[in-house]
Each structure stands twice: as C-alpha cells, then as structure tokens.
Amino acid sequence: MTPINIGSNSSLSRSDGTDLSPERKEWPLGFLPKDQLPTLIELLNNSFDEVIGPRVDQGAIVYDAIRSASELPHGWTDVQSPGVYRIEKKIGSGENPNAGEYFGYNVGPHSWKKYLFPPWTTLMKSKKTTDGWQMESMVEPVKRRVLLGVRACELAAIAIQDKVFLTSGTVDPIYQTRRNHLFIIAVNCTQAASTCFCTSMNTGPECRSGFDLAMTELSDGFVIEVGSEAGIAISEALALRSATEDEIDRGRIRRRQAVDQITKHMNTDGIRDRLLSQLENPHWNDIASRCLSCANCTMVCPTCFCSSVDEVHALTDDEIVRQRRWDSCFNVDISHLSGGPVRDTIRSRYRQWLTHKLATWIDQFDTSGCVGCGRCITWCPVGIDLTKEVATLCGETP
Known about the structure:
With about 400 residues, the chain is an alpha+beta fold. About 30% of the residues lie in helices and about 25% in strands.
C-alpha cells in the first residue's frame, strides 16, 4: 500500500506546552470494516518506522512491534483482580458476538511509558585516547512510531508524563524527541476489569483527547474518530466511509458497558489534604506488614518516573558509559544521602509512594499522578489495593 507522508508532532504537545493538534474539530465519524484492519496495519507500517501494538507473549497481553493484524490478540481477553492476572480465549461466536474482538481486554503489565521514557538509556560515553578523555553525547536516531491500542487512562498518563518531562521546567531531550514523533491510535474501552477505577480519576473509559485516531470496536468493524490533521490523512488514505447512525449508537452502547462494569472507586475530593493529614496513622504499619517492597507497582505504573544514573566502567578501564535506568522509591538506596538512606523502612517507602502519587504530585504538576488504570493492584504479589488503603487511612468505608 502506498505510504502516507505524515510529519512529526502529530499528536499532543511541544516542550513549551503549545498544543500541536489543531483546535478540536467536529470531523465526521468514519467506519472501518473488520476485514480492512489488515489494510490499516499495512498502511501504518509503510508510513512509519515502527508500529507498536498489543500481542500475546508469555501468558500476557503486552505491547511490542507488530507487522500484521494477525499478531493482535484476536479473541483473547484477560481476567484481573488484586494480585491476579491471566488471559483466556473468549468463548462462543453466535452466542457471544464479541468473541472475535481484537481489543477485548484491559491494560496489562506493559505501559506505553517505555517507548517515551525507556527503562534503560545510554546518555554519554567517555573514552580514553592519547589526547586524554574524549566525551561523546549519545544522540538517538529519530524513529517515527505508531502506538496502536492506547486506552483513555493511558492517554491521561502520557499527558501527565508530558508535564513531568516537557513543561515543568527542564526538558528531557530523549522524551521530547520520542514524543514529537508519535502517531497515537486510541481504543475506547468496551469492558472493565475489577481493578479499574478510571471513572474516579476522570480519565476514562472513553478517549476524549490526545489521539490522532480513536476506535470503538463493534462486532463487524470499528467506529473511527479523528483527532488531528495527521489522523485525517490516514483516514483519507483508507477511504473510510461515514459511520451510520446505527453504528454510532452501537459504539455509544459499547462504551457505556465499560462504565457500567466499573465497581472500584476512590474518593478524590480533597484527597491531598486528607491524605497528608494522616502521615502518622498506624494503618501505615499494617500496610508495611504486607508490602514486599518489590517495586512491582512502580514498574507497571504508566506515570512513575524515578530513575538513577550509573557510571559503568569497561574492564580495560579506558571507557566509561553513563546510563540512566528506571528506579523506584521502594528501593532503599534511592533515598541514600550522606550517611545512609532516609527512608529505611517499608512503612516510610510505601507512605512516600502513596502520598506522592495522590497528594504532593498535585503540588508539583497540578494533577494527580494516578490515572486509575489499576495496574498496581493487579500486579502487586500480595494484592494490596491502594483504593482500599486510602479509604482506611482517611476513615472511610473501603
């Protein structure tokens, strides 16, 4: 299929906070039949350097490079609860018209964060030569990526990371380059896991902004919403027809299903002050008695941004590589100052994580650091549920 020439900066924001997408327009809703999904994937792969989408790997639905629609998790769904995750095939066809869905699952262990803020990055190399030490900054080659299957809570997480890395002061050039070369195809949720609470955080389950295209999956195709000029270019290349009123109504019903399935809630009214007033609550000790300080919650979180920088020496001692890697406030050494770590107990580290995520993050970035995706609940080995812990700490009924 003929590639489409789409410039960079197709989606959200620039380092100065300028909105890169045009003023929100009422573009007509299109419709993509399911048998045309392979054509979309082919077009994207021909027009961009890499298409990242969901696929089944090692018993989970993860995000990775895909070349064809056959690699998508067609017919797969997931089952999630505190400390529990598994995937299974949807049963039936005529009895269950949604058994053949491509996006009939909830968020898994991966977040899109790793494609913007990589888990491991080489920042600089120093090499010893006859003229002394020579420093070389590492410049990444520009790669134009498509993120396919981004959920509403994940769009909110990307917007939060934009604040952290682009608009809060110092700009992270690695994040900026990757962010400016994204094309985002969002997918509206049509089901919810028992760990989802995006409605409490006002981040979903419907995609409202921050995408180039957004899709709602029906049994026979996808209702397509355009969110940018770049999205228009792709939809025109696909020659999408307009969605019918029946298809639009069915899409609305399917999105409502996700809202109706959400059972977990968190009271966010005044949460900053309510949580910071409970710093000496004895319940922190109860949480610490269960927490393993394993850092799983921060590794799967789409907004956590702790990192450490290491100087790695070659065995020959003539080269030093400076590397940045993900870190976690649950690791004792991250709070190491002169003389030792400041937060040397699990109680202090869990309290730091929760109060930063839901309280002091608001002071830093004027937004909560939580998007209600529920990953930290699902992937906690002992099933700690932050919504219940917050309720208990604030004297509410969990």
